[in-house]
Specification:
The chain is an alpha+beta fold and about 160 residues long. The chain contains 8 helices and 5 strands.
């Protein structure tokens, strides 16, 4: 199966309720609303590397796009930890993504370094099609953040 990355837009009022625990996180993430999420498949970690030039680190809004945010359920014993971005952070991420096109991301593709750093999921990032696989998820991710920013929404980020 593997580790699949997800983004889920969340209205600001609901995000506040989720943080305050007056709304149920499991219901929003796994319940009837789940179809509104963006499935990034296994591309999430490779995309993070292309955005930040690092397997696990990074700075600013580009780091927040896929591996940042604050844990919303870290004290729980869930199989997944859900992190969140505020609407302001979503706007920052969206703005940072807007200036990066596929050509800019291609410049950050370093297959040997990605292999050495253990970037998920490819066993060998030198294989044909690996970069295209990552880029096929970048456009939808960028558009998803753009829509959330336009709507004044927060974002949930999780891997399941």
């Amino acid at each position: 199966m593997g580790m699949i990355g997800y983004l889920k837009r969340v209205p600001a009022e609901l995000l506040a309720a989720l943080i305050d625990k007056t709304a149920t996180l499991d219901e929003y993430v796994f319940g009837d609303e789940a179809e509104d999420e963006l499935d990034l498949d296994k591309a999430w970690h490779g995309l993070h590397y292309l955005l930040c030039g690092d397997a696990f680190g990074g700075k600013g809004p580009l780091y927040n796009a896929l591996m940042g945010g604050q844990p919303i359920n870290e004290e729980e014993t869930e199989d997944i930890i859900v992190r969140y971005l505020t609407p302001d952070q979503v706007r920052e991420v969206s703005g940072a993504l807007e200036v990066l096109d596929d050509d800019a991301l291609k410049k950050g593709f370093a297959p040997d370094d990605m292999n050495e750093a253990g970037v998920y999921p490819a066993p060998d990032w030198n294989d044909a099609g690996e970069l295209d696989y990552l880029l096929s998820y970048y456009g939808p991710m960028k558009a998803y953040y753009h829509q959330a920013a336009e709507n004044g929404e927060g974002m949930l980020i999780y891997v399941s």
